[in-house]
Model the fold of this input.
Amino acid sequence: MTTITLSWGDRPIALETVDGRTFLRVGQNLRVDVTDASLDQLDRLADVAADLADHQRDRYRAAGVADEVAAEDGMKFVGVPFQRKPVAA
Done:
């Protein structure tokens, strides 16, 4: 199995139909054919998207709490420290 990593930020996510086939378009570069997807698979996709949204909300809340605590201490907090994985050159 091949894993593809794609970061799309705030680029659009939409359904599109071409020649009778239905695709889930994620940003400019990723198009997933969902024409023959079962209802179960589409429900699972929706569940995963909801879980991702919940995870991101939790990250935003955690950053907000850190800002509030820093403000109470009279300090300006810039952000939550984040260490990236090494990137191949």
